Amino acid sequence: MSSDRPGWPADVVPGDDEGPEPRTTGPENPATTQSAASDGAVSSAAAASARGRHGRRKQKKKGSLLKELPVLLVIAFVLALLVKTFLVQAFFIPSGSMERTLHGCPGCTGDRVLVNKVPYWFGSPQPGDIVVFKGPDTWAPEVTVTPPSNWFSGALLWLGRAVGVAPPSEDDFVKRVIATGGQTVQCCDPDGRVTVDGKPLHEPYIYQDNHQAFGPVTVPQGRLWVMGDHRADSADSRYHISDRYSGTVAVSDVIGKAAVIVWPLNRFRILHAPDIQGTAAAAASPYAVGLVGALPVTWWWRRRRWRESGNDPENEESSRDPAIPAFPV
After folding, report:
1. Which residue among the candidates 95, 97, 234, 237 is catalytic per the annotation?
2. Which of 235, 231, 229, 264 is nearest to 249 (CA)?
3. CA distance readout (Å), 142 to 110, 175, 181, 214
4. DSSP for residue 251
5. Model confidence pLDDT, tens digit, residues 141-163
6. 215 lies in some domain
7. Is 137 helix (H, G, I), strand (E, B) or coil?
8. 48, 130, 243, 254: which has the fewest C-beta neighbours closer than 10 Å?
9. What pLDDT, on the 0 to 100 scale, is given for residue 76?
10. Each residue's pLDDT tens digit, 292-312
């Protein structure tokens, strides 16, 4: 039977189970093959170009980092210098003159302390403060430091002192403030205690006191009398009492206040300044007097406001309705 439908082979009848044989794909179009090859070549070229750009960017970043490194080092150096000059500085404790508050004795791990410079921006050291200062030219060094042989070792020494891992300068000292300008200091009272203006000091930190007699010495204005906590092993103001400064040091030579022990970690702690002269109550007394004096003024002001508003407590009885009984509050 032949099919009368166009497009069907003559031997195929519509509705038979078997349809026309699938047509096999003929040979590939040369133009299509050439286009695919061209696309592949373009993709390979693009990938190579991308790799080249990535390599150039990486090389550029590496080159720019090498160029920026000196600038970053200079900025870091300037910041470290500013912090060291105005804010905080680390110090290595090389001697035992402040035992046992600060370790620096032979055979033990020397403490590293942070010295805070901010408290003395607008104020002066107070009795009981532990201070680091530049010693007068009449004070012999407590430690001997070999001077650097070249600029590089000098820079390393400066950096080590900045972070507190190198010995301090020979003219750097750490002591405790005992008396300030205008006060008279002396030793000793019948109980072997140091006195300031005739009053004995409360010094719970003393280690091995030798009760060395000295004074009386009146501290000039702008200067300090300082002593080590290890009284038997501290070349402090007592040992320089015969110099032209009477053993005192200038307030302007104070570097800062020792605030905290940062190394070794097992000794980490904040350093407190005890009230050795018992002046805390005296310092607070003006504020107490001011508070007491302010009470009558405050009471008068409140009475005046009450009267203006018509709520004066003294007129409360006259303004109360007599029909309402009064009860105590």
Report:
1. 97
2. 235
3. 14, 12, 25, 21
4. G
5. 877 666 767 877 777 766 766 65
6. yes
7. coil
8. 48
9. 73
10. 555 666 666 676 666 666 665
Token reading at 171 = 């003219």
Region of 157 (left: φ > 0; alpha: ψ -120 to 50; beta: rest) is: alpha
Distance of CA 326 to the CA centre of its chain: 63
Which pairing describes strands 172-179 and 184-187: parallel, antiparallel, or unpaired?
unpaired
Q: Is residue 100 part of a domain?
A: yes
153 counts as catalytic: no
Q: Domain count for the chain, please give it.
A: 1
- With residue 308 as reference, give the H or E element that holds it: helix 280-309
Query: How many residues in the chain?
Result: 329
Amino acid identity for residue 217 in this structure:
V
pTM beyond 0.90, yes or no: no
- For the question of residue 246 being annotated catalytic, the response is no
For residue 158, being part of any structural domain is answered with yes
Q: Which of 95, 117, 175, 234 is catalytic?
A: 175
Structure tokens belonging to residue 170? 């020979």
Q: Are strands 254-263 and 223-227 parallel, antiparallel or unpaired?
A: unpaired
Q: Judging by beta carbons within 10 Å of its beta carbon (0-12, 13-18, 19+), is residue 253 exposed, middle or buried?
A: middle
Burial 62-95 (b: 16+ CB within 10 A, else e): eeeeeeeeeeeeeeeeeeeeeebeeeebbbbbbb
Task: Look up tokens 């004070």; give the residue.
Answer: 139
Which residues are within 8 A (CB) of 41 and not within 5 positions of it... i.e. 6 or more apart?
A: none
Is residue 214 one of the residues assigned to a domain? yes
CATH of the domain at 175: 2.10.109.10
How far is the C-alpha of 35 from the C-alpha of 148, rounded, in Å? 75
The answer to whether residues 222 and 250 touch, using CB atoms and an 8 Å cutoff, is: yes
CA dihedral of 300, 302, 308, 314, whole degrees rounded to 10: -80
Q: Which residue has the higher pLDDT, 82 or 115?
A: 115
The whole domain housing 208 covers 87-281
Q: Residue 227 in contact with residue 201, Cβ under 8 Å? A: no
What distance in Å separates the CA atoms of residue 189 and residue 202, rounded to the nearest whole number? 13
| Residue listed under structure tokens 């001997």 | 144
- Quote the tokens at residue 61: 């970043």
